[in-house]
From TrEMBL:
Region Disordered, annotated ranges: 70-89, 123-148
Keyword hit for Transmembrane helix: yes
Residue ranges crossing the lipid bilayer per the database entry: 26-45
Native organism: Altererythrobacter xiamenensis
Low complexity composition bias: residue spans: 132-142
Keywords, ordered alphabetically: Membrane, Transmembrane, Transmembrane helix
Name of the featured protein: Uncharacterized protein
Origin: domain of life: Bacteria
Lineage: Bacteria, Pseudomonadati, Pseudomonadota, Alphaproteobacteria, Sphingomonadales
Entry keyword Transmembrane: yes
Length: 148
């Protein structure tokens, strides 16, 4: 079966061997020149190279606080930062409340029962919180989360 296949390599190999056995004046030179690119590629691929590990980066620390601050100054700056955070949080909550009012007005204008939807969402939220509390009590975790 292999000899009848059109993909049989034996006749091609035999023809090549017959050609190589014929006396040619430059056959050894041509053979050597044809091996030269392969030899160069193999030599280049197997050449040993040593990679030097990169030098560690130079780190420059930038301090934004005076290193000789007192505890009172630190506490005062922390209180000022907390006040700014609380003001930002209040502003964001006010913006969110305005958005909710706008969506409520839009829902009422399009004929959607907004109050029923809010009650349904609140019931789902309460059920999720109860499930989280149940899971936390089963695993022994506390519900306290550190705030920013």
């Amino acid at each position: 079966m292999f000899s009848r296949s059109r993909f049989n390599p034996v006749p091609g190999a035999m023809d090549f061997w017959t050609y190589l056995r014929q006396p040619q004046p430059y056959r050894w030179v041509i053979l050597a020149v044809s091996f030269l690119p392969l030899s160069l590629i193999l030599w280049w691929a197997t050449e040993e190279s040593i990679l030097v590990p990169p030098s560690p980066p130079e780190v420059t620390y930038i301090t934004s606080y005076a290193p000789d601050r007192s505890d009172e100054e630190i506490a005062a700056s922390n209180e000022a930062n907390q006040r700014r955070k609380d003001e930002r949080r209040a502003q964001l909550e006010e913006i969110e409340q305005r958005k909710r009012e706008m969506y409520r007005d839009l829902g009422r204008a399009t004929g959607i029962d907004v109050d029923a939807m809010e009650a349904e969402i609140e019931a789902e939220r309460a059920a999720e919180e109860a499930a989280e509390a149940q899971t936390a009590s089963e695993t022994g975790e506390t519900g306290a989360v550190a705030s920013d």
